[in-house]
Amino acid sequence: MSLPLPSDPGARGPEQSVTLVAGDDFQRETDEAALARRYAARPRTRVMESIETRSDGWPSLISLRLAGMVRRRVVCSLYESHRQDTTMGRHQDHWDGVILQMRGTKRWQLWEDPSGQPREVLTQTGDVLLIPQGVEHDVSTPDYSAHLAFAITDQPLAGS
Question: Where is the JmjC domain positioned along the sequence (predicted)?
């Protein structure tokens, strides 16, 4: 049994946009037909941003629980990709990332030392990967992947 995701058929609400990502090119769509046309023309990773506020269910609960534990704002995004999809490329994030591999497999290259060789990590369904803020990383998808990224921001919770 797998947990439902906002990308499952019929699960995405009308206010939840999908962002098609290739490098630093981000195109947001809410219309299913337009999304399908753009993806067919240029296959790339699909991202549903801020699902902790835009969808009901367990990702919201996990985001709230994690935020309570670390006393920082937590933003959750769903990344979904196939083998042929273009990705963001090598980059670093300005938050600590908790990656939860929900379906399929993702290959990560992590540069803890930007001038050194990357460490390769393969995440499979159920795996959790922690990526500290500022660690450069790149990804590829052997076949199919859906993972959640819980971004622990530097923004403290109200009242902290």
Answer: 71-153
